[in-house]
Amino acid sequence: MRTAFIGLGVMGYPMAGHLARAGHDVTVFNRSPAKAERWAAEHKGRAAATIAEAAAGCELVALCVGNDDDVRHVVGEALPALPRGAIIVDHTTASARLAREMAEAAAARGCAFLDAPVSGGQAGAENGQLAIMIGGDAEAVERARPVIGVYAKAVQHMGGPGSGQLTKMVNQICIAGVVQGLAEAVHFAARAGLDRGLVYEAISKGAAQSWQMDNRWKTMAEGKFDFGFAVDWMRKDLGLVLDEARSNGARLEVTALVDQFYAEVQALGGRRWDTSSLAARLERP
């Protein structure tokens, strides 16, 4: 399929690479042209000078950018260049409100917009093992599935526009609570004088087991946070969650508290640390 990929960050760069390796005709755009040129050289694709140039004549445009305003900008530039029937697949974690707005704008031009945030982090993107939750028209989802399936291990259609973003919010709520509990557990084990490696071996095969425990216990215990999903990004995501909760009346006491804990990590200089750096604030004097 003739595709474009907009936004070549730590997620978008490998995701676009999977499309090229799967045989799709891929054109990329990135705000930093050098990165787009590097991708094009590596994957024998094309780098466009503008979003409209990248999108021109494409059957599907995927994007993975920063926030609501970035998505509006990309869609606004791409839509006039797309043929009727084209699909825009937005992998950005953004608001459900924006997804509905973009779906209406796309429909007005005879196109489809799918809100399709991802979970799995940089490693999931690099290994083609992302979990993707999608909101939008069912027929468009099925047409897009063979394309986005090349970098996903699971693709789930959740319902109408915005439902993909709402599902990603549920994902982030779960992560926030689990990471805080894990940070406190690592901290408690140290204060109790326990060998934290042995503690992990003792509890990681039972009910306490989680992806976060398996992948972050050791680095938390070692105080290593210079990798992974940045605190700044998590705070952006939790801001979306808490804003939505104010609208729908959901009570998110723990999530709101963890968001403030992340603000403390930012104040410690950890804006780009992994989300597991919640452990760092517990070790302050």
Describe this structure in words.
- With 285 residues, the chain is an alpha/beta fold.
- It is 54% helix and 14% strand.
- The protein has 2 domains: 2-160, 3-Layer(aba) Sandwich (Rossmann fold); 166-282, N-(1-d-carboxylethyl)-l-norvaline Dehydrogenase, domain 2 (Orthogonal Bundle), CATH 1.10.1040.10.
- Strands 3-2-1-4-5-6 form a 6-stranded parallel beta sheet, with helices on both faces.
- The longest helix is centred in the middle third of the chain and has 29 residues, at 163-191.
- It is globular and about 65 Å long.
- The termini are far apart.
Number of strands: 9
Count of discrete alpha- or pi-helical segments spanning 4 or more residues? 13
Shape-level CATH architecture of the largest domain? 3-Layer(aba) Sandwich
- How are helices and strands ordered from N to C? EHEHEHEHEHEEHEHEHHHHHH
Radius of gyration: 20 Å
Separation, N- and C-terminal Cα atoms: 57 Å
